[in-house]
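Task: encode each sequence below as structure tokens.

Item 1
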Amino acid sequence: METVVVIVGAGPAGLATSVCLNQHSIPNVILEKEDICASLWKKRAYDRLKLHLAKEFCQLPFMPHGREVPTFMSKELFVNYLDAYVARFDINPRYNRTVKSSTFDESNNKWRVVAENTVTGETEVYWSEFLVVATGENGDGNIPMVEGIDTFGGEIMHSSEYKSGRDFKDKNVLVVGGGNSGMEISFDLCNFGANTTILIRTPRHVVTKEVIHLGMTLLKYVPVAMVDTLVTTMAKILYGDLSKYGLFRPKQGPFATKLFTGKAPVIDVGTVEKIRDGEIQVINGGIGSINGKTLTFENGHKQDFDAIVFATGYKSSVCNWLEDYEYVMKKDGFPKAPMPKHWKGEKNLYCAGFSRKGIAGGAEDAMSVADDIRSILATLKNN
């Protein structure tokens, strides 16, 4: 099949890119390996998840949220919004298509995308002038290699598989990772009566969603350094010194840290109070080794657990199928060009949703990619 643009991935960034291209009447096809759009939100999100960012930072092009929508949406509300977006703009992704390889054919200056239809088992070949990678930052769940992990006698899962603490009542559960997922899963486990411990290796800023909302609004008008100073001061006033509880604050400000490292500040849902009250135990450092259900930590502490939840992030899977990834990506599957032109590669290869700026970043990328493709096609037509 031939088309002008192939988009790989039907998450928010992929859907937005298709809509923006359609606004310019540019033919495009979305290939999605799952049987639904936005599978991360529909299949790999825990039950209690709520969006930590205000609704104006969680919307896609040409369809802002209405006044009736609360400032901070539940997962269900956001999923409904995405489904309404697909319906309103009549987006028709080709589901159950797992892309096996994508290469640039120098002989005709086109991209050759090979996909498997996982329903029929057939191999499909797509040719396009432009290719957009929109599989997102959250590819494959990352579970680090730990000595003896194969001997663990309990349950091991990645945070993307976690749904609820309902089945963990009275069990000793270790959550590995002190980011937003790890902190919120710990809170959920504790609420369901699990004996919860969280393992935190690196310092993280802890703030409220209201403070982050204020900070993100100010960033439109005020330099990052000034916003960081304000947000950090407010966090100190709200929480005080949390280091005695094992929660350490980075020297770099929360928004600068997010910008340069991709690590977002932790938006507290009530976890800090439970840590203060001793309901959730904090261990700093990493896991040294595992022997059966006994874990030995790097600080020498030993403790038995019935389950481990790894909230240790994701690995990009882009380089597994994008053979000519070096035109836009580094080996780690993230853009090689710095912002704000991170989305544009060589040979008409683009990426959307890799800016580490969440839904808003994916929406911005989608508009930039579509505008750039429109400009290139207009130039070719005039020549």
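Item 2
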Amino acid sequence: NKKPVPLLLQKIFSSDDRETDTASESSYSLGRIKKSPSSLTNLSGSSGMASLSSVSGSLMSIYSADFGNVDVKGNIQFAIDYVEQLNELHIFICQCKDLAVADVKRQRSDPYVKTYLLPEKYKLGKRKTSVKKKTFNPVYNEILRYKIEKDLLKNQSLNISVWHNDTFGRNSFLGEVELDLGTWDWNDKSNKQINWFPLKPRTSTMVLNLENRGEMKLALQYVPHPVGGKKTLPTGEVHIWVKECHDLPLLRGNRLNSFIKCTILPDTSRKSRQKTRTVAKTTNPVFNHTMVYDGFRPEDLKEACIELTVWDHNKLANHFLGGLRIGLGTGKSYGTIVDWMDSTSDETALWEKMINSPNTWIEDTLPLRMLMVAKLTK
């Protein structure tokens, strides 16, 4: 059993770098985390959009920086039916009427319709109609199909949304309808008929909660006086042991090659970013990767936050799957208000336990969530 050689200060580039990462253990010195507010200003709320918009093909497109700010109007005509012989849910998308203008400059919309079954428990993904160009009254007459046992529909909602297809990929949201299939009467003949439904602004709480990002099992340890550390500088280390992830969402087809990146905010410099190797072809990857960050004084633990993000590695670009932010969740860092200090109660509890039990591994399994990923600075 060969022991992996620690790769110190691995070179880490952007979210879509190509280099293979063989490290099983890596470390980085925080030095003194910069205290000046200027080092925090590059973490504004919008900063994550570049990395988010690369996430095509996932439920993230629901969030994409692309709600546009179109006032929703108009109606959609469709019918749904469950076809017993095929074990399929069929959604017959007929047409839309009086859609909003998405491209104000050119006074046009190029609409298409997209469907999801939520929550995305069964990883069936989305279905889309064709795009109809230059029309506020598109006619589709297309059937979107999901292969799913009828019984499983009891705990699903059907989300049907209309979008303007923008050539530059910034699609604008034009409205949605959501049907609770749990209360749907499949035997009622009138439910099989084509009906008009008013389009509504984005209300889907389930879409926004995205319960299906999977979870990460990890352990943290704070070492106040590392062995061999200089006694004169009372700084400690934070050790992060990323063990495994469970039930990661499949964005494309049925293959997932995932890796995890770590940044200690407020330091967004590239050299502070570490990552695991990529684990191929599984939604339950085992990483067993330890990262060490030093230069922590006790008071820095109150101001810092560990951002762990999980990515699907793809030749063209890496796609964001979900993440954790582990800190005190106070909304502030070194006196500056920051939006990344937003830990959930579970994330905060793990950080507090780590602070209160030095030299002990504290383990937990936490649900991954949607994050605005902090932008890297040089």
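Check on item 2: The helical segments are 49-53, 205-209, 300-303, 345-356. Residues 68-201 form a domain with the Immunoglobulin-like fold (CATH 2.60.40.150).
End of task.
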